[in-house]
Amino acid sequence: MPVITTPQEFDVDDLFVDVRRITGHPLYLKCEGFNFAGSVKLRAANEMVDSAERTGVLRPGMTIVESSSGNLGVALSLVAVSRGYGFVCVTDSRCTQASRRLMQRLGAEVRIVSRPHPQRGLLGARLELVNRLCAEHDDFHWLNQYANDGNWTAHYQTTGPQIAKAFPDLDVLFVGAGTTGTLMGCARFFHENNPSVTIVAIDAVGSVNFGGEPAPRFIPGLGTSVRPALLDDSFVDDVVIVPETDTVRACRALLREGFLLGGSTGTVLSGAVRWLRENRPGGDLTAVAIAPDLGERYLDTVYDDAWVQDVYGAGVLANATTAPATTGSAAPVSEPLGHGGPVPDRGAPALPHPDPTPDTPADPATVGPTSSGSL
Q: What is the pTM of this model?
């Protein structure tokens, strides 16, 4: 019987769901949402805070500040309150109301950015605000998940080995690409310990991670408007770019079988099915996809018919399958990958907040090396 004293000690790390009946392909989902933070981001949050404490840049009485679309913000809220730190989460209008409320109940201050940076999108605007906060407060420390080695190290030390232990004959691993911490940690682990495993990154249409054209995205989690410093695509064997409409269909397909999983999971599942259909139609392989989170925080978005129809149009719900998506080799940023069609630009859905962050101009932020204190 496990007995814990802090919430971050609990994490179910060996739960896999066989989704062959749902997808028609041999595929196991590694479910990462069964911890008190509700997502895979708890591992990165723990490691980044541990590392900052070890190096002395994070000290008692300080405040952690981080940019997050939701899941890492929740994880850091939990870690911060359990260790006695303040926490400010800088997010944007795509962050779900459920994630905002949960962070606030855990004691975090949530700052909302609503106006995109002209070149760097909402993420660029979030990073501008992080820069300004750190410049104004000497006791703030930005973990910088986009360049912090603790982000990928956490998965090199835990997630990768857990998958290898459960599936010693693994052929292909599908990993979503947001900050790319999970992707890089698992890819580096298998590169060193079992290089025959094919690493397939799953990204969203509108993300620039693998050279795609920036475009509006409405589902938080995967994808980014600023290429993360962590990403080294030499460790990636293939890339699948998934339209958000297919994310919705994949989530709904899972829900029809009783699995309420998050938007990032829907994106990964859709991309994995497309890759398997095009590359291994015979099904003679062992495949695992990482499911980053659960679905409760998406009840007002991905699982809400009115929201889906308002953002994507009424036709999206007519055919809830896990395809199509597109595949392509990992390419430098300068080589755009094709995709299955643009997501309609209908403007970001309105998400009210009682105290929105004012949109004040600032110098563009850089997703660069992590720093101590102010930037």
A: 0.84
